[in-house]
What we know:
Elements: H1 17-43, H2 51-70, H3 76-96, H4 99-103, H5 115-145, H6 150-218, H7 221-236
Helix pairs in contact: 1-2, 1-5, 2-3, 3-5, 5-6, 6-7
Amino acid sequence: MGVLGPRSARTGRREPVVVEAFHRGLDVFRPLAALYAAWLAWQRQDTMVRPWVAAAVLGVMAAWSVGLLFYRRRTTRVVVAEMAIAVGGVLATLLAETPESIAAGQFTIPTVWAAGPVVGGAVVAGARGGLLAAAVIAVADLVEIRTPTETTIHNIVILVLLGGLVGLAVDLARSGLEREEQVLLERERLHERERIARVVHDGVLQSLAYIHRRGAEIGGPAGELAGLAAEQERALR
């Protein structure tokens, strides 16, 4: 129905404004987060065991971030692929950094970029998707550091809250849009019924008026029929 608006180019369905805003925000967040991760890696390249591992991960992150600026579709497969890049980047920190740096709570290679798939999962699949994505990243963080620090737990809590709250906002927005669509569709059906009723009503009035007029002209039994038609016409009006 035209009154409900066009479908989203990203998800193929009608989406609330807030969902489209989240998608646009993520399109900006990914490249900026990749640049931030690259800056942090550049600062500590001298202490890395294998800086080329970090360079490779950052290259994949950058390519993915730029690619999604042109590839508009946002499906579960896209979120899973982005999640795989984030998890791979977190675990690749084990190869790039020294064990001492990791134990001390050194940043993972993706750093805040790993929050992107968490929000992406929440936007695509709601609260369940956001919490599941946060859980996957949290497991990768725990595997990477082995002995969780206070900072690691803090970051995991933030990821869980981020995925859950963004997903909840998306779920509420979509349910609100569904109710609005139902109201609009019902309103259209009522308008259509009223239009048909007016057409039928006007048609019956015209027919009764014609019978009244012709019966009065003919007279006799037709005159009685004309009187009945006149009574019915007055009742309908």
